[in-house]
Amino acid sequence: MEYNFREIEKKWQKKWVENKTYHVVEDESKKKYYVLNMFPYPSGAGLHVGHPLGYIASDIYARFKRLQGFNVLNPMGYDAYGLPAEQYAIQTGQHPAITTKNNINRYREQLDKIGFSFDWDREIRTCEPGYYHWTQWAFIQMFNSYYDNDLKKAQPIDKLIKNFETSGTEGIKATCSEELSFTADEWKAMDEKAQQNALMNWRIAYLGNSVVNWCPKLGTVLANDEVVEGISVRGGYPVIQKVMRQWCLRVSAYSQRLLDGLDTINWTESLKETQRNWIGRSEGTEMQFKVQNSDTEFTIFTTRADTIFGVTFMVLAPESELVAQLTTSEQKAEVDVYLDKTKKRTERERIADRKVTGVFTGSYAINPLTNENIPIWISDYVLAGYGTGAIMAVPAHDSRDYAFAKTFGLEIRPLIEGCDVSEESFDAKEGILINSPKPGQEKEGGLVLNGLTVKEAIVATKKYVTETHLGKVKVNFRLRDAIFSRQRYWGEPFPVYYKEGIPYMLDVKDLPLKLPEIDKYLPTETGEPPLGRAQNWTTKEGYPLELNTMPGFAGSSAYYLRYMDPHNDKALVSEKADSYWQNVDLYVGGTEHATGHLIYSRFWNKFLFDIGVSVKEEPFQKLVNQGMIQGRSNFVYRVKDTNTFVSLGLKDKYETTPIHVDVNIVSNDLLDTEAFKKWRPEYNDAEFILEDGKYACGWAVEKMSKSMFNVVNPDMIVDKYGADTLRMYEMFLGPVEQSKPWDTNGIDGVQRFFRKFWYLFWNKENQFIPTDDAPSKEELKSINKLIKKVTYDIENFSYNTSVSAFMICVNELTAMKCHSKQVLSDLIVLIAPFAPHIAEELWESFGNNTSVCDAKWPVCNEEYLKEDSVKYIISFNGKARFTLEFPVDAERDAIEKTVLSHEESQKWIEGKAIKKIIVVPKKIVNIVC
Question: Cα separation of 847 and 861, whole Å?
């Protein structure tokens, strides 16, 4: 019987749907296991062979856990909002909902062909009102909450209001935008507008002024990863930095908990370190600096207040509000030119770029410890979001300050005895202080650090600054609050309306607020976001609704909870479902989400945990980052000034130009010349210089992209080789976490393996050959060796070595002419996670009337792996000459006697005196003559 993979795969894909094989419900009698893939965005191009890599890896694990007896949740859905669909709508006039639906249908068709064990009854789409109802609901809860720093959790805003009514801001320890102070009487004297504006200072979802990546051509704010070198990824338009009033989420309130949570989850250390750096915890001091000839004061944050005597200039971020206040009329023109330039650079680019730029404001600050006048500059190496957006520069002991001082000829004052700052800054973590203060700057009763060690100086400075009220000790974080507004159409509407300019939340009973229809998807002629075009975009009472929409990450921040209970119209997730599934046990996705999605979703879940919705504070217990499958490009070589193409091995005889060619008309690096002629009109009359009647192409590993014609469609692979072959081959390419090139050249070997595997069960005369005969000792050893190897490999995501182990075992069982149902049944179950279609077909052939998914994962019996005998290397004077096999429990005397009497030994010891015999148990016998 032939292995007809096309019929087998269609048959079982149909049966899985009919039998609801992958439908899952909460089952208290079983231990749960939740497997999740990072939310895919369905692009119009569909899947290429690189996309399923992570899905296959997680699917193998999900099937494995089910076979181990777990109740496995393995859902799939779509992150359906986004800029690409909106841009397509702008270009074509087609509603983004239609584009998105078509893209989803294409994705679903491709995913089904690969044979995933997704429970499609739980599918969610972020663009459906039934889903974004709960994103809007969560936003309302954040608006109605503040973060209590004593309790270290979110609390109802009503609790804060009650405190204001009785004690004002006294005793309030909460995360806020700025420190405000008022009494209970002052609070009560405020009108509603003033009170609401004050509360915005503490709300977790709040309106605030933020520096954003603004793209005038697209008419919207862009995330950092949507901008490269000041240009939008989508469309290639200029992007500038702009201060805008935006909805924000107070992610920074959770900074310490986000750090602490990393110690409780099973992620790679490199990924944890990336998040730690992004959160950026630093302990330091906030200090006040007065401005010369002015009543203005400003705050700086420094991790090294002890270096204040080495401050020779101050630097403001270009976005700082102080820039306008401190720029003198003489410097204004120069400052304006500089600000205009920096608007075009994102913060990420500014951090990465070491180029020194800056401009003098014309103003001076006063050093509170020395009364020196310090020039105040502006430079884009200072970011508005870190600390206060203003720094004190100590060029002798900071590399970026040093470079700035060198560029602009500013003083570099060393603070460490014996340090050399003639060529570079000096790391001032150790040493004895000098110039603190420098001679002539001493103040009566002032701070003196000269002669102290760095550690002593740090303690003394913090104490002095605190006692003299020049500042306060503070923990600071680099993590910014999330900008949550987008000036787009295709996104979740905010559940917000405005009354006399004040934002209010809709009542939760009025959710979801559905996205309205509009005539076109561009900003209005007056510059409002596209929702400004909507007719009657107001509440029933006539109050205007918010015109911005939520960003892409809104819908992907709590989707893992919705999968637990996707059809619940009363809650995001029921208490019962959440208590059962709890959190994601295995999360699989790309490293590109390390600092965006993974930070925001962890924050979102911690907030939901605070208000009693999520039972687990950390959403993703174990995370695996799959690598990227790169493209393997092929080239043809055109002879210059001709339409003749020369084969790879002959190209050096001609002057040629390499040209990318569609890899889908190349097989094993051999070009289908007729298909090439039909590929593009200009090659209709192409001629070829062949090698042995064939045209060999060149190749290179590059990013998989349409422009390089190296995109491989998984549909073509499935049609030609089968879904099981595609699944097995992608795992065979290399470790899941590593990037590797796609090379179709090796896929034939995997397909041959499946044919060989098939013929363990069916012979070519269409006879089913397994029997009830007891397995041999060798057969049991082979299958138990495989059980042990595959179990370990799956648990450790070493799938590539599992594929090799399958090949070895099948070769061994074939050589043994194994027909044992006992052995072959275990073999089917072992391969089922990797190749579910062929496993189902063979499982049915055994007379089973249930899915192989419901079989039991075999357990290795170590007794069958024990060796009866062992080979010893027989050496003479340290040189190996031959091998002998002995019983594993052979005594030393018996080994020596056998070796010495063996005929092979005679020629090496003849006529020589034996000085010593060394026996290394189970390894070697060395005879010294």
Answer: 25
